[in-house]
Amino acid sequence: MSPRPFLLAISAVAVFAACSGDNAPPSRPVVAEKAAPLTCPNNKTIYAQSQKLTATPVTSGSLLRAVVMEGEWAMGGDSYAYVGGSRPGAAFTYLRSGTVWSQTQRLTGPKSSNYWFASALDFEGEYAIVGAPNEVSMGNKKGGGGAYAYVRSGTVWSQTQHFYHSGVKAGDSLGGSVSISGTWAAIGTHHDDPRANASGAVQMF
Fold it and tell me: Can you tell me the distance from the alpha carbon of 142 to that of 186, in angstroms, rounded to the nearest whole number?
């Protein structure tokens, strides 16, 4: 059985494909207006770029530093997005109809600048989790970090929970990586010190 091609998402969610099973590039640049098959030198089929997703309102941050997709939904993070005059970051949701993706919502969490909200995110079904690893957490611990849970009803995402972890210290960076599966959420604390200086840990919720 021939291996399937894999997709690579980069920059403002421009989706490209690479030849699977070898390092040979496509015979021409991947620049199609709509999804269309291309042929690798080894005659394996791949897919061209179909759409470039951007955010509204336009920000001067780094849209889609983090991106995740499942089924007809996609989510991208801009950890430097302006929100209400500050720069805490935001996540943007997209819904696919047929072959066209459209932005549906901007998700916000903390209100202060440089909290890096949405530098990590994940979702499964109607549940999502978004990290803010530079957030000032409990006890005014700068950079202790945090994460936010969202639930989707129809096409609307709403915040339901704010995650901290016990024993948080300044600079722990809770929310630097996140994953959700079923009723479990795993949230990384990149600079936690359970065994050595900044050795890191994963908090299970």
Answer: 21
Q: Which of 27-36, 76-85, 176-185, 196-205 has the highest mean pLDDT?
A: 176-185
Helix and strand element counts for the chain (H, E): 0, 15
Q: What is the DSSP letter of 24?
A: P
Check if the beta carbon of residue 94 is closer than 8 Å to that of residue 103.
yes
DSSP state of 112: S
Token pair in block for residue 124: 């499964």
Q: Could you tell me the pTM of the whole model? A: 0.74
Give the pLDDT mean for 163-173. 76
- What's the gap between Cα 3 and its chain centre? 26
Cβ-based burial of 78 (10 A; exposed 0-12, middle 13-18, buried ≥19):
buried
Cβ–Cβ < 8 Å for 61, 81: yes
For residue 162, the tally of other CB atoms under 10 A from its CB is: 14
Q: Are 194 and 176 in contact (CB under 8 A)?
A: no
Amino acid making up residue 104: T
Do the beta carbons of residue 63 and residue 121 sit within 8 Å? no
Q: Residues 103-130: what's their mean pLDDT?
A: 88
